[in-house]
């Protein structure tokens, strides 16, 4: 008899007595009436979070009692690290897990979610970080638009080009891997009454040790705010609208609006009408289709970083880093970890129980269970290993059912090919809906799992640590200038000239062997810094590598000065430009000798960071006299150096006496001749002869090309120019001229920097093919001293070279002054040279074996800095930057053909080449 059926005799009696009408349905009973108003839980009712307490940094559950801590995890960069480094980090994570609070009843629940999310337009982000005074600058606007256009291509769901590490035609794309941590505990009201602390105080107290341990391992925890929580979860459940903090404040004023309602704004529909078992457990949230795939236990001991780091393999002298398991998962995947920390006593009790039960039977399964239980017990006793309950799974999300089913097959296949984790095929899953809901944030209930599904498995914390997504691929800061990427497509932002990205200085070394993409990458870095930092830039070019860069900058409003050292050159770099300041130093020395000098102890700057104008000019004078010959320079006696200094001061005085703006080599030669004449008159024939020889050497700098370039008056570098391009290629075969030109240029730039040091605008000096400078020791000595002075003048040096082996002896000192090193792909021989010269540690030696290059797609390198980990980076340059930096013979010929066909300039031809590159990317995306 059903609950609502009426006995026939009672039915007749009530109708005949008039209690009920003679015809029609009988009236409802009181129970039936109440059942009319029975409500069943909606999907959102399973999600307990309703509000946030900002002071306590906790989320409140719908019982208005229990709370949760939710963090975004800034993972530690561990890509391409050595096995020792990975294992050390793994141990530190395991120690942090062991520091989690444990309770026999009402254990804490720890949930970790790793997601693959699209990223906002990088061009928009770049624009938001640029000083507002620069946003109207034409070059800045152009660069922002270039990055914005490229970002649209890079973040396309199809990718920008095929990813050679992945099977099929999957494209490499830019996105973000986000990791979230949730920790909560559920107690009844009666249990909380026994506690001396509020739920917020209790969870904060209990997590003190864990927070300290996790942060000491190099992982940063940032409390997740409500708008970030909503923006993380709501797109997964069909709501693409972004929420701001202001929206959250506005919603607080509305009645009956909680956080869960804002996340699950789309009413879900369970896919009941499935025709195949493979469609079990599927939900639809608006336009999004979703399911949860349950993973079983661990089948073998996992390697460190098994989920988010690729596997390393040796390939000759190079190393290969495969795509990680997480990268192979479909777009929209979310890997979930649920950990239930247990007390040692509870785990030992359960191990003993299993062992005792297994001992009573003789089956192979029982024997194996007994062996496992005893092994685990021994590990806990001997090695202090902890065992937690663990449940793993993967949420999938797609725009349609067909894609979701395909993604399911892909995911199951990838899990099985990993040969590490068991997977429950959805068609055999007995609890698909239950598993989907219980894996949601803050929903999991350990008691329910133990009583109903038994999905959580006992796992060593060291094994859990190996699987966690804390092994990150992302590094860098938040200040975009150099925009690079990890192999997984996460942006790496670095601005060496921003105070938050450097420790002391912004000096850089860029080492890129021939064919490594050096010219294009340096061109990119230069333009990005000009757009973001607006420095006065000095580019020492060799072979016209940056000609089109200068043309592009000039076309976008920058004032460009081009200097070329030829016989017809109108440009002069005066070696003795700072005549007046040098004479003041000489006067100071004279006062010291006369006993009239009063020192100044107020300056706290180190001696090596103070300029000595006479010292700089003496260095140039020595080059002029010795021709840059190291042996002759080293053999100069103290007497000769004294004579040199006297001649220098006298030459400076002569220029003033003759009414000239600064001294020239002619004055130095005349001064030397004057000194020689005096020595001859005194009968010092040998001394006079030596001085006449030096005079003769100096006269060479007043004749021919030497005289044209260095014996004319000059006004120094003009500060009104944004970019000064100095072509030094013609001097490369004449070391003495190269040295004088280099030293004179550096000293002239330093003079400008002193005059403009309070202008708020820095100076960047980039020297291409700097190994040509490194061959000239006297030049490098002056440059090394100059680099130390630069720091207080906000002047930064970047040495660019393709041959690090030319840096020998004292030349290596300048490399030590650099805080940022950019090392491109190199051969094994070059790695050995770089290791010796740059004094690379073992980790960098390991890392430098991984960079690779795919023509027309990307180049890779290693970035080393003080503030950030040594990082394997990928440069995916905008098409226009690539077109501006094409220096190969075939590339130049192609550019010339376009110029002839279209009758356009070389810069316009580069625009056409860039357009063709962009079209090829778009064609791939439309395949």
From TrEMBL:
Native source organism of the sequence: Phocoenobacter atlanticus subsp. atlanticus
Q: Which NCBIfam families match?
A: traC_PFL_4706
Query: What's the domain of life for this entry?
Result: Bacteria
Q: What name does this protein carry?
A: Conjugative transfer ATPase
- Pfam families under this entry? TraC_F_IV
């Amino acid at each position: 008899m059903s609950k609502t059926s009426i006995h026939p005799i009672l039915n007749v009696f009530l109708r005949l007595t008039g209690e009920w009408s003679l015809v029609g349905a009988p009236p409802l009973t009181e129970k039936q009436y109440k059942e009319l108003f029975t409500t069943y839980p909606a999907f959102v009712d399973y999600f307990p979070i309703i509000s946030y307490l900002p002071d306590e940094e906790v989320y409140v559950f719908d019982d208005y009692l229990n709370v949760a801590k939710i963090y975004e995890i800034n993972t530690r960069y561990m890509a391409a690290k050595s096995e020792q480094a990975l294992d050390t980090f793994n141990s530190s994570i395991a120690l942090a897990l062991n520091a989690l609070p444990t309770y026999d009843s009402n254990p804490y629940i720890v949930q970790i979610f790793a997601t693959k999310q699209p990223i906002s337009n990088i061009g928009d982000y770049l624009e938001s970080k640029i000083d507002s005074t620069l946003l109207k600058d034409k070059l800045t606007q152009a660069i922002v638009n270039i990055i914005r256009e490229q970002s649209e291509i890079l973040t396309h769901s199809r990718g920008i080009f095929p990813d050679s590490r992945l099977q099929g035609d999957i494209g490499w794309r830019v996105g973000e891997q986000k990791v979230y941590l949730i920790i909560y505990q559920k107690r009844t009201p009666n249990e909380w009454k026994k506690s001396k602390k509020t739920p917020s105080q209790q969870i904060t107290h209990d997590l003190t040790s864990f927070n300290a341990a996790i942060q000491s391992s190099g992982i940063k925890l940032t409390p997740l705010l409500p708008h970030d929580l909503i923006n993380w979860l709501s797109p997964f459940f069909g709501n693409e609208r972004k929420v701001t903090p202001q929206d959250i404040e506005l919603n607080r004023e509305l009645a009956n609006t909680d956080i869960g309602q804002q996340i699950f704004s789309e009413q879900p529909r369970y896919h009941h009408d499935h025709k195949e078992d493979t469609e079990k457990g599927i939900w639809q949230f608006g336009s999004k289709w979703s399911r949860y795939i349950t993973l079983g236990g661990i089948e073998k001991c996992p390697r460190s970083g098994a989920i988010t780091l690729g596997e390393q393999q040796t390939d000759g002298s190079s190393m290969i880093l495969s795509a990680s398991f997480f990268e192979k998962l479909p777009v929209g995947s979310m890997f979930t970890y649920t950990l239930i920390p247990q007390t040692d006593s509870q785990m030992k009790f359960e191990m003993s129980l299993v062992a005792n039960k297994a001992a009573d039977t003789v089956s192979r399964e029982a024997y194996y269970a007994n062996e496992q239980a005893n092994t685990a017990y021994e590990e806990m006793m001997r090695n202090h290993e902890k065992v937690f309950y663990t449940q793993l799974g993967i949420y999938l999300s797609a725009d349609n059912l067909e894609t979701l089913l395909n993604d399911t097959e892909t995911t199951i296949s990838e899990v099985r090919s990993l040969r590490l984790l068991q997977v429950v095929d959805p068609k055999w899953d007995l609890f698909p809906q239950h598993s989907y809901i219980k894996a949601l944030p803050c929903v999991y209930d350990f008691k329910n799992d133990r009583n109903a599904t038994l999905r959580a498995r006992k796992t060593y914390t060291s094994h859990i640590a190996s699987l966690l997504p804390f092994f990150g691929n992302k590094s860098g800061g938040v200040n975009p200038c150099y925009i690079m990427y990890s192999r997984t497509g996460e942006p790496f932002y670095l601005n060496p000239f921003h105070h938050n990205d450097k420790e002391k200085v912004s000096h850089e070394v860029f080492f890129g062997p021939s064919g490594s993409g050096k010219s294009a990458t340096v061109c990119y870095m230069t333009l990005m810094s000009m757009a973001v930092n607006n420095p006065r830039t000095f580019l020492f070019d060799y072979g016209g590598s940056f000609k089109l860069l200068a043309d592009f900058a000039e076309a976008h409003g920058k004032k460009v000065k081009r200097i070329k050292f030829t016989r017809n050159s109108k440009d002069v770099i005066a070696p003795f430009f700072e005549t007046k300041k040098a004479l003041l130093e000489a006067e100071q020395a004279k006062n010291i000798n006369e006993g009239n000098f009063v020192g100044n102890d107020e300056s706290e700057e180190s001696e090596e960071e103070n300029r000595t104008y006479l010292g700089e000019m003496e260095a140039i004078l020595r080059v002029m006299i010795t021709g840059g010959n190291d042996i002759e320079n080293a053999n100069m006696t103290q007497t000769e150096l004294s004579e040199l200094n006297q001649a220098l001061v006298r030459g400076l005085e002569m220029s003033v006496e003759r009414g000239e703006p600064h001294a020239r080599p002619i004055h130095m030669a005349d001064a030397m001749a004057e000194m020689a004449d005096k020595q001859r008159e005194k009968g010092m024939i040998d001394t006079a002869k030596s001085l006449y020889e030096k005079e003769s050497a100096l006269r060479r700098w007043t004749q021919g090309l030497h005289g044209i370039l260095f014996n004319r008056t000059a006004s120094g570098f003009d500060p009104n120019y944004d970019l000064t391009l100095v072509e030094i290629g013609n001097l490369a075969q004449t070391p003495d001229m190269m040295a004088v030109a280099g030293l004179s240029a550096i000293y002239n730039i330093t003079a400008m920097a002193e005059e403009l040091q309070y202008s708020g605008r820095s100076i960047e000096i980039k020297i291409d093919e700097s190994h040509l400078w490194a061959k000239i020791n006297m030049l490098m000595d002056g440059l090394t001293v100059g680099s130390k002075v630069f720091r207080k003048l906000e002047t930064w040096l970047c040495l660019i070279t393709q041959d690090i082996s030319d840096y020998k002896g004292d030349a290596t000192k300048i490399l030590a002054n650099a805080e940022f090193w950019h090392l491109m792909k190199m051969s094994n021989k070059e790695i050995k040279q770089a290791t010796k010269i740059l004094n690379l540690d073992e980790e960098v030696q390991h890392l430098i074996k991984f960079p690779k290059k795919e023509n027309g797609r990307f180049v890779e390198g290693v970035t080393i800095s003080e503030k950030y980990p040594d990082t394997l980076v990928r440069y995916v340059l905008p098409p226009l930057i690539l077109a501006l930096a094409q220096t190969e013979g075939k590339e130049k010929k192609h550019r010339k053909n376009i110029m002839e066909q279209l009758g356009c300039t070389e810069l316009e031809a580069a625009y056409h080449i860039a357009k063709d590159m962009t079209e090829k990317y778009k064609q791939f995306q439309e395949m």
